[in-house]
Design brief:
Elements: H1 2-7, H2 11-26, H3 38-59, H4 62-77, H5 79-87, H6 93-113, H7 118-145, E1 175-181, H8 186-193, H9 198-206, H10 222-231, H11 238-242, H12 250-257, H13 260-266, E2 271-276, H14 298-304, H15 319-339, E3 347-356, H16 376-379, H17 385-409, E4 415-419, H18 428-431, H19 433-440, E5 445-448, H20 466-475, E6 487-488, E7 497-498
Parallel strand pairs: 1-3, 1-4, 2-3
Antiparallel strand pairs: 4-5, 6-7
Helix pairs in contact: 2-3, 2-4, 2-7, 3-4, 4-6, 5-6, 10-12, 15-17
C-alpha cells in the first residue's frame, strides 16, 4: 500500500490545484451549470502538472518535487483563504502579502533542508485525494438528483401559449427587450433615494415611449423576474417539478436563457439574440465576454481568491483590475446592442446589463469610480445611494444612445421594451423591512410599440404580463393578463410569500 501511495505522489500538486475549483463549484452548483467548471479546471490542472515538472527538473527527486510543487500551488491558489482570515484581524493587504511570501520562502527552505519527508508526502497525498473525491462524489450525486429542465416542459407553467396569428402581408417588427438590472421606478428614486429622474422619462416619452407609472415585478430576485417575464407566467409550479424545498436556482436561469417568448417568436421566423454584460441571464458562462470579466463568474471568483488578487493589469485581480474588466464588458455589451439593426430581421433581442446594479464602477458621466468596502449592507444603504444614482445616470445615457441608434438604423420601426427586472436593492436596516421589500419590487417600465393603440397598457403592469400584453397587441393572441401579485423571498426558493403592496392602490394582492 505504501509503495502504491508513493507511486502517485506526483498527483499531489494536481489534486491540490483542482480542489479549490471543485469545492467552489460544489457549494455553488445550485446556481450554475457544470459547463462552467471545465475552463478553470484545465488551467488549474495544467498549473499543477507544470509546477511538478519544473520542480522535478530542478530537484531530481519525485518526493521533494511533489512537495515543492504542492507548496507553490498552495501559495498560488490558496492565498484568498488566508487573506479572508487575516483581514479580519485588521491587517492591510501589503502586510498580508509580505507575510504570505515570507511563509513561502520559509517553507521552501525547510523543504530543501529536510532529510526524510516521505511520511509528510504520503499524508498530504491521501488527504488531498480524499477531499477531492468527496467533492467529486457530492457534485455527481447532486447532478443525478437535479436533472436539467426546459422551458418546453408543460409541467412548469399554469397556462399554455397560443399559436400566433399573423396575415401574410404583415411585416414583422424587430423586438428589443432591454433590461437594466435593479433600475428603480421614478417615484422610488425621488422619494427614497432623493433623485429626480423625470428628465430621462421625458426623453423617453419624446421618443414615443409609453410609461406604466405603477409597474412592478413579481419577485424579489433578478433571475426569477426575468424568467417569469420571458416565460409569460409565474414560477409557482416549479416546486411540483423539483420539490418544495429545492434551492436549485439553476433551473430558473435555464428557462430564462431558453424561454417561451423566444420559442413563440421563433415559430414566426424571428432570430433570437441574447446579449448580457455579465452572466446573470446565462445558466453557464456568457460566451460573449471573458470568464474573468464578470463578477459573478466561477472562474473570476476562483482567481480572485488566488495570489493574483494582489496584482493589477490584464492578469491581475485587484479591485482596480476587476472593476476595469467589468466596465469594459458593460460598454462592449452596449456596442453589441447598437450593432443589432445591421443584422437582417426579423429578430428578437434580449439584452440585459447589470448596471445600475452594483458593482458601482461608473460615475454619472461614465468616469471610473470605486466604491470602498462594498458589503451588501453598505451597497444598499446611505453610503451606496450616491454611487447607485451616479451609475443610473450613466445608464440613462447608454440607454438613450442605444435607443437612438436602433431607431435611426432599423429598416422598419422596431418594438422596444425597457424594463428594470426589479427596483433598488435597499437595506432593511436603513429603510425598514416592509419598505425595503416594496422598493425592491418597483422597477422602470417603458414601451415603444409604433402603430399600435397603447391605451390598454395597464398602469400597474406586472412584469409577468409584459409579453402577454405585447403578443395580444401585436400577434393576435388572447392570453390576457395574469393576476397581479408580488412575492417576497421565503425560506425556500419556490415557496415565496405573497406580500402587501405599499403605495399602489390599483394593485390588488391577496
Amino acid at each position: 500500500m505504501q509503495r502504491f501511495v508513493r507511486a502517485f505522489l506526483p498527483a499531489t500538486p494536481l489534486l491540490l490545484a483542482i480542489f479549490p475549483i471543485l469545492f467552489l463549484f460544489q457549494y455553488n452548483q445550485a446556481d450554475v451549470s457544470p459547463t462552467v467548471i471545465w475552463y478553470p479546471l484545465a488551467i488549474s490542472a495544467g498549473t499543477g502538472v507544470a509546477l511538478f515538472a519544473i520542480s522535478w527538473l530542478v530537484l531530481r527527486s519525485t518526493l521533494k518535487a511533489a512537495l515543492l510543487a504542492s507548496l507553490l500551488v498552495v501559495a498560488t491558489f490558496y492565498y484568498g483563504v488566508s487573506y479572508d482570515v487575516v483581514t479580519a484581524w485588521g491587517l492591510n493587504e501589503a502586510l498580508i502579502l509580505g507575510l504570505w511570501v515570507a511563509m513561502l520562502i520559509l517553507g521552501i527552505v525547510a523543504l530543501l533542508r529536510a532529510k526524510d519527508l516521505s511520511k509528510l508526502g504520503e499524508l498530504l497525498l491521501v488527504v488531498t485525494a480524499v477531499l477531492t473525491l468527496v467533492s467529486v462524489v457530492e457534485i455527481g450525486l447532486y447532478r443525478i438528483q437535479n436533472p436539467p429542465v426546459s422551458a418546453s416542459d408543460a409541467r412548469l407553467w399554469s397556462t399554455p401559449l397560443e399559436n400566433p396569428v399573423l396575415t401574410a402581408s404583415e411585416t414583422l417588427p424587430d423586438i428589443y427587450y432591454i433590461v437594466p438590472d435593479d433600475y428603480a421606478r421614478t417615484d422610488v428614486l425621488k422619494e427614497y433615494l432623493g433623485y429626480d429622474n423625470s428628465q430621462f422619462i421625458h426623453d423617453l416619452r419624446n421618443r414615443g415611449f409609453v410609461i406604466p407609472e405603477q409597474g412592478r415585478s413579481p419577485y424579489s430576485d433578478s433571475e426569477s423576474n426575468m424568467a417569469s417575464a420571458l416565460n409569460l407566467d409565474y414560477l409557482n409550479r416549479f416546486e411540483d417539478v423539483v420539490g418544495a424545498e429545492s434551492q436549485n436556482s439553476l433551473i430558473v436561469t435555464q428557462v430564462l436563457e431558453d424561454n417561451r417568448a423566444s420559442h413563440f417568436l421563433n415559430a414566426l421566423g424571428y432570430q433570437y439574440t441574447h446579449i448580457d454584460s455579465d452572466n446573470t441571464t446565462y445558466a453557464g458562462d456568457n460566451p460573449s465576454i471573458s470568464p474573468i470579466a464578470a463578477p459573478d463568474n466561477l472562474t473570476y471568483l476562483w482567481l480572485r481568491a488566488s495570489s493574483l488578487r494582489t496584482f493589477s493589469g490584464p492578469v491581475g485581480f485587484s479591485n482596480d483590475a476587476s472593476d476595469e474588466r467589468f466596465r469594459q464588458s458593460v460598454l462592449a455589451a452596449f456596442d453589441r446592442l447598437k450593432a443589432m439593426p445591421q443584422i437582417a430581421g426579423p429578430k428578437f433581442v434580449f439584452f440585459h446589463t447589470l448596471i445600475p446594479h452594483d458593482p458601482y464602477v461608473f460615475g454619472p458621466q461614465g468616469e471610473s469610480v470605486t466604491f470602498a468596502n462594498p458589503s451588501d449592507d453598505r451597497l444598499g444603504s446611505q453610503p451606496g445611494i450616491p454611487y447607485y444614482v451616479g451609475q443610473l445616470r450613466f445608464s440613462n445615457q447608454l440607454l438613450l444612445e442605444s435607443i437612438d441608434v436602433i431607431l435611426a438604423q432599423s429598416k422598419s420601426p422596431p418594438i422596444i421594451i425597457i424594463q428594470g427586472d426589479e427596483g433598488f436593492q435597499s437595506n432593511a436596516q436603513t429603510f425598514g423591512e416592509e419598505t425595503m421589500q416594496d422598493i425592491r419590487l418597483k422597477g422602470l417600465n417603458a414601451f415603444y410599440v409604433p402603430g399600435k393603440d397603447m391605451s390598454g397598457l395597464p398602469q400597474n403592469l406586472n412584469n409577468v404580463n409584459t409579453f402577454r400584453y405585447l403578443f395580444d397587441l401585436c400577434f393576435g393572441t388572447h392570453l390576457a393578463m395574469l393576476e397581479n401579485v408580488s412575492y417576497a423571498e421565503g425560506n425556500y426558493l419556490f415557496q415565496p410569500q405573497k406580500i402587501h403592496v405599499v403605495g399602489d392602490p390599483n394593485i390588488q394582492n391577496p
